[in-house]
Amino acid sequence: LGPQNVEGWLDPVRYYLHVGDDERAQNLLREAVESMPDSVDVYLFWGQALEELGRVDEAIGVYRNGLQRKPINIDLLEHWGFALEQQELYDEAIEVYQNGIADGASADAMYIRWGIVLGRQKRWQEAVGRYRKAAEFATDDRTKATAYLHWGIALGRMNRWQAAVDILTQARDLDRSDTTNLFYLGSCLEQASRVLSDSVTYFDRAIVVFERLIALDSQDAYALNYLGYMYADRGVHLHEAVELLMRALTIDPTNGAFFDSLGWAYYRLGDLAQAEHFLAKALEHLKDHENGEQSIIYDHAGDVAKVLGKDTEAIKYWRRALDLSPENKELKQKLGRTIP
């Protein structure tokens, strides 16, 4: 008789995808669309299945077809736009979000995605304008908090730290249980403490935020690492830093950045044997980290090697760090002082 509802169609599709019979799954999805042409769930499932198979161009076509039936469906618009973003078709993605707003889709969600696309292009000032619009159109605190979150991140990218702290504080106040808001506020406060005059106040506020985050989610390894590294980098609360970083590594035992943080904490404590051990572990787990993080790890390894009297190793590590961060003046100075 054929399936009578969406799940009746999608359950066998899930099975065929699971066993690798993609052609049979696609044929069933075509039949499902013919049977239920107004079902957004079918279009969304089909598009996401194609994306997981790496067939993003076909997924874009599915979302477009779904929107012909449901022209202002926010889920279809977001998935279509995001698929275009994955293909780095940023102008086309922006057009999708602009048209969604013009056609009456939820403006707050569309403006947020529009801002994210501009951020991908490093057009931060324009992105701020879109997030401001999203906050104006937001009909609930959670969506407004999301707009403020992205707005604050964009301001940070522009090195406007005080403004970023103010906006991210508003995001936190709108949704105090959201750990993402807390993480970015804490991170922004810590970075502001490096450049703004009232350094201690910003640093202390960052501690309060991260302690609150960890109280809400004791298994947030990135929060544990961030607070532990803050302490290590400042040379304060070093035994607590080690404890926090050990907890982070218990949760995520192959994270090179966490090993680096722990090695740096031991370096600050003067335990060079442990510092060298954990930085060696960090170097073993570099592949999942971006160039900036890898550069920091190599830099720290060089510092430890230098103190241990291993100048040849130190030079090797610092050169590698400089390859990854060629504008780093401090690395150039270290090499200049060490190379005979």
Strand tally is: 0
Helix content: over 70%
- Rounded mean pLDDT is 95
Structural class: mainly alpha
Overall 3D geometry? globular
Residue fraction in strands: under 5%
- Report the radius of gyration as a whole number of Å: 25 Å
Q: Give the biggest beta sheet.
A: none
Pick out the low-confidence regions. Answer: none
By DSSP (H or I, 4+ residues per run), the number of helices equals: 19
Instruction: Quote the distance from N terminus to C terminus.
Output: 84 Å
Would you mind describing this structure in some detail?
- With about 350 residues, the chain is mainly α.
- It is about 80% helix and about 0% strand.
- The protein is built from 19 helices and no strands.
- The longest helix is centred in the middle third of the chain and has 18 residues, at about 200-215.
Sequence-ordered SSE layout with sheet pairings:
Blueprint: H1 6-18, H2 22-35, H3 40-52, H4 56-69, H5 74-86, H6 90-102, H7 107-120, H8 124-137, H9 141-157, H10 161-174, H11 179-195, H12 199-216, H13 221-234, H14 238-251, H15 256-269, H16 272-284, H17 291-307, H18 311-324, H19 329-338
Briefly summarize what is shown.
With 340 residues, the chain is mainly alpha-helical. Helix content is 79%, strand content 0%.
Entry keywords:
single chain, 0% strand, 340 residues, 19 helices, mainly alpha
